[in-house]
Amino acid sequence: MGLDKNQIAKRIAQEVKNGMYVNLGIGIPTLVANYIPEGIEVVLQSENGLLGMGPFPTEDKVDADLINAGKQTITTLPGSSIFSSSDSFGMIRGEHVDLTILGAMEVSEEGDIANWKIPGKMVKGMGGAMDLVASAKNIIVAMQHTARDGSSKLLKECTLPITGLKCVKKIVTDLCVMEVTDKGFKLLERAPGVSVEDIRKATEGTLIVEGEIPEVQL
Amino acid sequence: MINKTVKNAQEALQGVESGMTLMLGGFGLCGIPENSIQELLRLGVTDLTCISNNAGVDDFGIGLLLQKRQVKKMISSYVGENAEFERQLLSGELEVELNPQGTLAERIRAGGAGIPAFFTPAGYGTEVGEGKESREFDGKMYLMETWLKADFAFVKAWKGDTAGNLIYKGTARNFNPMMATAGKITVAEVEELVPAGELDPNMIHTPGIFVQRIFQGEKYEKRIEQRTVRQA
User: Fold this and answer.
1) Fewest 10 Å CB contacts: which of A40, A144, B26, B179?
2) What is the pLDDT of residues A44-90, one digit of tens each?
3) Across the interface, do A125 and B226 touch by the CB < 8 Å criterion?
4) Partners of B76 in the beta sheet?
C-alpha cells in the first residue's frame, strides 16, 4: 500500500516543467532525474558548483574532479557550466533556481521544514539546505508520511530544529500529494489503495479535504 | 612578474603555528589540498581552527588531522562523512560551528573582499540565527553574518603559474577561489606548475595577487567518496 520511493520520485517529476533550473536534494529527490518526461528540457543544479548535471559516468569516464553534492561521480552535458560555491549559492539565494526538491524529517502545516538535526543524535549539519529553503521560489518535499513508530511527520508545528520557515509549497509522501495553504495541508491526490481516512489518521496537522480526492496517476 | 614559487609543502607551510585559524579548500574530498594536509600532519601543530565545508572522512583529508587531535574547532556546513568527527563532537572534545553552506561561502568571500558583514535569508528563524542581528528588507527577514579570514588559506588548483595565477578543474573548484582571497598567507598547491606566460590570462580563475606561495604537489591520490557508475 502507498507509493514506494521510485513512485514518489515519478510523481514529483510531473511537477517539473520545460525550461526549469532544478536543484535536487539527496535521497528520493535524486531519483526524480530518472523520471523527467520525454521532451521536457530541464537543467539540474548541483550546489557544489555545476549546472547541467549529466548521468553517472561509465567506468572509463570516472573523474575524481567531477562530483555532485552527494559526492557521487557524475558527468557534464553539452552546455554545462562550472563555478565556485559562492557563485552557486548566489544563484540559489538570488532566486535564479526555479524549483528545489528535497527530503524532510518533519513539515508543519504552515510550511516550516525540519531536516538537518536530531539533537543529541545526529549532527551532520545543514549543508546547503538552509540556503535553498530560504530562497527557492518553489519547494517540493519528498518524504515518508509517518515515522517507523507510526507517528506523523506532518505536524501542526515541527518538533525538531527548523531548517526554514513557511517555505514548503507541495509535499509528496508515500500516502498522498498535498499543498501547503494558509489554512493547512490541502489534500490533492491519494496513493492507490489509500483512503482519505488513512491519510487523516497519519496527519497530525490540519488536513483540508474538499470534494472527491483523485488517485495519483503515474 | 613576481615569483611566488616555493620548493615544496615544507617551505610553503613555514610559519604555521599551533592555535592558528586555517582555511582548507574542497567539497568532500574533491579539490582538497592533499599535500598541505600531509605537511600539517608532519608539523604536528595543534589547537587549530579549521574552516572547511566538510571534515574529510575518517582516514583521509581533514579526518587525518582530527585523528591526531590537531583540531580544536571546525567551521563547516556538513560533517556527515566522518565517524571520528561525530564522536569528538558528541563527547565535547571538538568545538563545531555549523554554517549554512552558502553563508559559509559568502563569509569567506566577504573576508577576502573587505566586506565585514552582510545579510542573508538563510537560517532566519532557526538556531543558526540565535544571537544574531536580523533585519527586514522589502518585507522579508534576513540575518546578519560576518566575514571570515584566516592566518593561512590552503587551496588546491589544477594548473598554476609562477605568478600565482590559478585554474581549477571540474567541481574541484568549489570553495577554493574564495578561500584563496581570504588568507593572510594563501598557499596554492597545483597539479602542474608552469612558468608565467604559459596560461591564457582569459582563463585564469584566481588572479595571482591573492596567492603568496605556490608549489607543485608531490602526488595526488584524489580519493573518490562515492564511485557511482552506469553500464556502458
Assistant:
1) A40
2) 999 999 999 999 999 999 999 999 999 999 999 999 999 999 999 99
3) no
4) B98
- Residues of chain B with Cβ-Cβ distance to A68 below 8 Å are 171
Q: Which of A62, A67, A128 sits opposite B171 (nearest CB)?
A: A67
- For the question of residue A110 being annotated catalytic, the response is no
Residue B193 has pLDDT above 80, yes or no: yes
Compute the average pLDDT of residues B151-165.
98
Which whole number is the average pLDDT over B154-177?
Answer: 98
Q: Which residues of chain A have pLDDT under 70?
A: none
What ipTM goes with this model?
Answer: 0.96
- Residue B98, strand partner residues: B76
Q: Compute the count of residue pairs across chains A and B with CB atoms less than 8 Å apart.
A: 171
pLDDT value, residue B73: 97
More confident call, B91 vs B101:
B101
Closest Cα in chain A, distance from residue B168 (Å):
9
Are A68 and A74 in contact by the 8 Å Cβ rule? The answer is yes
Which of B30, B126, B231 has its CB closest to that of A130?
B126
A15, A41, A47, A197: the active-site residue: A47
In A, which residues are within 8 Å of B92 by CB distance? none
| Helix, strand or coil, per DSSP, at residue A80 | strand
Residue showing cell 489503495 = A193
Q: Which of A92, A163, A164 is nearest residue B102 as measured by Cβ atoms?
A: A92
Of chain B residues 55-94, which have a CB less than 8 A from chain A?
76-81, 86, 89-90
Contact B174 A85 (CB under 8 A): yes
Q: Against a cut of 0.90, is the pTM above it?
A: yes
SS3 A204: coil
**pLDDT tens figures, B52-92:** 999 999 999 999 999 999 999 999 999 877 888 888 888 88
